[in-house]
């Protein structure tokens, strides 16, 4: 492989301006993540402590191996939604190492509305289960939930049923699920432990019941305490719902670690690997590489040079289809095929991407997509040359790809180019965005111009007066404001359209964990449908 040269001038004015803007964006991201981790009411903290409960992040820390990374999933889910206080959708989840093995670990945060399930909480849990199934990850589930958030029950109930369906499928797949009940587990939530492989309950604080004491009293007139109705003594000694009895949370978490040590997992899939090496160039320089204005193009090879081991890259078809950069590299010792945008997608670049994706599938090489794309080229000339069918080939190749795929939105993500570059609907194992990124159907300016043009043509057909500047501005302004707000990475990460926003300098290490996680699942034989010629 050849070493990628760099043309970045760290002393230039443009570099310094880019650096300042992007470090500010990274700082804003860190502040929002800190707020999501730490902002809780004193009343909620005090109540948690009174019940002798350990905070959910501390619970996870006590389970994972000391000094190992924890890859948190969707830490800003539900950001800005509801009352703005349902941080991380009230659920902490991620991939952690327990006794040297990777587990998908998830836990309710009972300091947020008692761990109640909001609509985005349910969708986050479904995403966690999807990750576990795709990557054959055993799960550790820490339940401490007040159940569905009743004012929004209409948006919780039906979607929530899918959680239990998924658990049944995971059990069928042989994916171990270790559930520690560390608080109440009510109504449909009672099925979470019931459908797990192992269940641990804690004396005095754990409770599982289809109907809690208030509902039992309302429905039957029977007065009963939570402990007598569904506490640890009942389910460990009478009903058999639970398998392990713990005198306190610390013992429960120790049991969880012990069970995790002894679950059986398959050997990892082997892909080409070599000894890891750091890039030649400092990852901090990414702040100066990324333009402060996304309308300005930038050389994506400069990004690859700061992600790849030794900054080495074996480029595929370097002289053809130049708006798409394809080739192989190693990241922390793992071989990956990189598909990266260097401009709009033309027919040649789409065909090049299609061929490269097929090669990676044949050779069992995972794919990394670096998105900075405004779409496919449009116009009479390009339609006659077949841009639609050539774009279809790339979309089909991405759709039918069987190797693990990872996507990072490093700039713009618009139109069908977002799909062709393995956007969320196209099944990346993990997908992240950078703080500078923007995701939308098209740019706000283009969208407003389209609507203005439609209005102009309507006026002409009706014989009306041409649009005035004031009328055009009245169309343009709200469209621009809406697109600016809804294209923000925070808007999309809140709605689980990615797995989190990354500080660019952390991207390489996050990819290491994600690639390792993906290799817990086998890679099937590649196959494709019909390619329109």
Give the topology, please.
Layout: E1 2-3, H1 13-38, H2 42-50, H3 56-63, E2 71-72, E3 91-98, E4 101-108, H4 119-135, E5 139-143, H5 153-173, E6 177-181, E7 184-186, H6 191-194, E8 198-202, E9 207-209, H7 213-220, H8 226-230, H9 232-239, E10 244-246, H10 249-262, H11 286-289, H12 300-304, E11 312-316, E12 324-331, E13 334-341, H13 347-362, E14 367-373, H14 380-384, H15 387-400, E15 405-414, H16 415-420, E16 430-433, E17 438-440, H17 444-462, H18 469-486, H19 489-494, H20 507-518
Parallel strand pairs: 4-5, 5-6, 6-8, 7-9, 8-10, 13-14, 14-15, 15-16, 15-17
Antiparallel strand pairs: 1-11, 2-3, 3-4, 11-12, 12-13
Helix pairs in contact: 4-5, 13-15, 17-18
Summarize the biggest pleated sheet: 8 strands, mixed
Q: Beta-strand percentage?
A: 15-25%
The radius of gyration computed from the alpha-carbon positions, rounded to a whole number of angstroms, is 26 Å
Q: Which structural class matches the secondary elements?
A: alpha/beta
Give the overall form: globular
Number of H- or I-type helical stretches: 20
Residues in helices, as a percent range:
40-55%
Number of strands: 17
Distance between the termini: 33 Å
Query: Mean pLDDT, as a whole number?
Result: 93
List the uncertain runs.
none
What are the salient characteristics of this protein?
alpha/beta, 17 strands, 8-stranded mixed sheet, 20 helices, globular, 7-stranded mixed sheet, about 525 residues
């Amino acid at each position: 492989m050849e070493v990628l040269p760099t043309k970045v001038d760290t002393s230039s004015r443009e570099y310094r301006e880019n650096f300042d803007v992007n470090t500010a964006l990274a700082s804003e991201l860190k502040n929002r993540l800190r707020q999501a981790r730490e902002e809780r009411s004193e009343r909620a903290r005090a109540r948690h402590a009174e019940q002798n409960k350990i905070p959910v992040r501390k619970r996870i820390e006590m389970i994972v191996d000391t000094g190992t990374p924890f890859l948190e999933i969707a830490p800003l889910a539900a950001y800005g939604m509801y009352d703005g206080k349902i941080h991380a959708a009230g659920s902490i989840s991620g991939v952690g190492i327990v006794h040297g093995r990777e587990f998908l670990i998830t836990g309710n945060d009972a300091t947020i509305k008692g761990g109640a399930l909001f609509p985005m909480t349910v969708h986050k849990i479904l995403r966690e289960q999807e990750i576990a199934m795709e990557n054959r990850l055993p799960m550790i589930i820490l339940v401490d939930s007040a159940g569905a958030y009743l004012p929004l029950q209409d948006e919780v109930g039906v979607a929530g049923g899918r959680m239990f369906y998924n658990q049944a499928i995971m059990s069928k797949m042989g994916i171990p699920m270790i559930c520690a009940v560390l608080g109440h587990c009510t109504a449909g939530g009672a099925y979470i432990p019931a459908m797990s492989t192992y269940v641990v309950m804690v004396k005095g604080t754990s409770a599982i019941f289809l109907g809690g004491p208030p509902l039992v009293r309302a429905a039957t007139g029977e007065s009963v305490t939570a402990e007598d109705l569904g506490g640890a003594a009942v389910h460990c000694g009478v009903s058999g719902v639970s398998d392990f009895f713990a005198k306190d949370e610390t013992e429960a978490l120790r049991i969880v670690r012990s069970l995790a040590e002894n679950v059986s997992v398959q050997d990892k899939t082997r892909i080409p690997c070599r000894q890891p090496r750091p890039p030649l160039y400092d990852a901090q320089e990414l702040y100066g590489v990324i333009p402060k204005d996304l309308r300005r193009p930038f050389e994506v090879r400069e990004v690859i040079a700061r992600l790849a081991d030794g900054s080495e890259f074996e480029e595929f078809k370097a002289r053809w289809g130049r708006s798409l950069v394809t080739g192989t590299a190693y990241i922390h010792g793992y071989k990956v095929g990189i598909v990266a945008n260097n401009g709009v997608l033309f027919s040649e670049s789409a065909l090049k991407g299609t061929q490269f994706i097929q090669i990676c599938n044949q050779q069992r090489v995972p794919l990394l997509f670096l998105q900075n794309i405004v779409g496919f080229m449009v116009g009479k000339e390009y339609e006659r040359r077949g841009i639609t069918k050539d774009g279809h080939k790339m979309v089909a190749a991405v759709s039918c790809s069987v190797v693990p795929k990872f996507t990072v939105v490093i700039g713009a993500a618009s139109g069908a180019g977002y799909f062709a570059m393995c956007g969320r609907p196209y099944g990346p194992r993990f997908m992240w965005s950078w703080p500078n990124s923007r995701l939308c159907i098209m740019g706000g300016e283009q969208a407003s111009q389209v609507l203005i043009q439609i209005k102009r043509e309507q006026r002409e057909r009706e014989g009306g007066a041409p649009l005035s500047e004031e009328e055009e501005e009245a169309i343009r302004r709200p469209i621009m404001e809406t697109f600016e707000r809804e294209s923000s990475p925070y808007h999309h990460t809140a709605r689980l359209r990615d797995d989190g926003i990354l500080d660019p300098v952390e991207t390489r290490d996050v990819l290491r964990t994600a690639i390792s996680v993906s290799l817990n699942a086998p890679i099937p034989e590649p196959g494709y449908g019909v390619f329109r010629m």
